Amino acid sequence: MNKFLVILISLFSILLHAQEEVVQSVYFDTGKFHLDDKQATAVIDFIKNTDSTRIESIQIFGYTDDVGKEAYNYKLSTNRATEIKNRLIDSGIKNKIIVTIEGKGRILIDDDVVENLPEKRSKNRRVDLVLNLKALPKIEIPGFYSTIQKNHIVGDHIYLENLLFERGSSKLTFQAKTQLDKIAKLLLKYRKLEFEIQGHVCCTPPYQKEAIDRETRKRNLSSNRAESVYKYLVFKKIAKTRMTFKGYGNSVPLGKGSEYDRRVELVITKI
Fold first, then answer.
1. pTM score above 0.90
2. How many separate helices (H) and strands (E) can be counted in the chain?
C-alpha cells in the first residue's frame, strides 16, 4: 500500500491574506425580509459573541428560493441583506466595517432534487452574515513545511500560504497562479512524485457536504477547485500521468479551524 505525502495549498478569501470567515445564516419566510425580535437578537448576539479584536470586516449576502421571477428575487434578496445591515448599525456596529451588502437573487436547486423540496427551498430564503477575522497564528503541525524540501520522508506536509480563491469561486487568481508556478518548478525537479489533487471546502451547513460554485451554480466547488489546479499544472508541463484530482467537500477537516480547511492538497501516491 502506498503511503501519502500531503502538500497543503491554502484556499483563503481574496479579501485578506490568511483570513478566517465565520458565517451565520438568518432564514426568512416566503416573500418576507423583515426580522422579528428573536431573529434580530440572534444576529446581534452572533456579533457580540465573537472576539471584537479579530473582526476585520463584515459581509452580508442575501438569497431567495428559486420560485418567482429573477428581478423580483434580486430585489427581495437585496432587501433581506439591507435589513440585516440596518439592524447591525442600530445596535452600534460601525458602518465602515460592513464592506459588502449584496443581494444575490435566487439559489437554483439541482434538477435531481425531488425529496424534501419545501425544506430545501426554506434553507435558501436566507441571509449569510460573514465575519472576516484577522489571522490566527500559523498552523503548527509536526511534519508540515512551507515548501518542498530536498529530503522528505513519506507523510511530510508542505503548507503554502498564497494560493487564493475568491469566495465561492474555483477560478485561479493571479496570486494563486504565482504560487502554483513555484510548485510546478519543484515538481519538474522531483519528477518521480505522483499525486492526487484533493479539493476541500469549509463553512457549509451540516446537511451540505459540498459548496456551490457560483460560476457553474452546481454543488461541486471542491472538485472544481481541484480541477483548476490540475489544469494549471498540466499547462505548466506537469505530466497528466502523474496526477489525478478529486473533490472531498467538507469531509476532511484538519481540526485546526475553518481557515485551514479552505484548501487544496497534493497527496503523493508514489515516490
1. no
2. 5, 10
